[in-house]
Amino acid sequence: MSLLQVKSASKHFGRLVAVNGVSLDVQPGELRAVIGPNGAGKTTFFNLISGFFPPTSGSIVFDGEDITGLSEHRRVEMGMARTFQITEIFPELTARENVRVAVEVASGERMKPWLSAAAKRRIAARVDELLEMGGIGAMGDRLVGELSHGDQRAAEIMMSLALNPRLLLLDEPTAGMGDQETYNITRLIRRLHRDQRLTIILIEHDMRVIFHLADRIMVLAEGSMLAEGTPDQIAGNEHVQAAYLGKAA
Length: 249
What we know:
The chain is 39% helix and 24% strand. The chain is an alpha/beta fold. The strands form 2 sheets. It has a 6-stranded mixed beta sheet with strand order 6-7-8-3-9-10, sandwiched between helices. A 4-stranded antiparallel beta sheet has the order 2-1-4-5, with helices on one face. Strand 1 and strand 2 (16-26) form a beta hairpin. Helix 3 crosses helix 4, helix 3 runs parallel beside helix 5 and helix 5 (149-161) packs parallel to helix 6 (179-195). The radius of gyration is 19 Å and the shape is globular.
């Protein structure tokens, strides 16, 4: 059974058609990429999947259940987590405190006035595990606002992972990074996919990242699907070269 099915989803903003009848079928354990030029509708498409916007038409099915009308937080509860183009962190808190907030939310302990010693140990162990997994264990007690952009992104991804997702949506995870930071985040995403067996969908502009990571790629152009296939198929597609890579068809 597919983990995620988007069926002919469209989103209109008045006369503007941001997404036009796009379908997507993602299998458990797959790493899928969504690419396209600026204004292609990629982030709007993510917003439909994550529940930030309701589709104008079409439907979204997650793990066999129609979630088209469900809120963002209900989708998170079902196992869907997301990062954004602009890093969503608490810069005045340490990396450890940022991840701890997410771990407490996921464990249902966030609103309790006090925690048992056992709960504190369990939460602390999970926080340490996530910091190490993200490659920022040595930076746990530093303010996130003082970390490099790449390390901030790693902290954000770990906060999403604390929610125990089955589907992780990454919106331009390497945006604004230099080569070394891009390499580090790419390696982190690969580890999460391989070792944690996470199903991942990512939007990304860096073609090196896309062709290194993705099992399959969907190309959007002007809100519609232009092509879909393996990295080799997409690299050799003349329509993609014309619309996205800037080559003549």
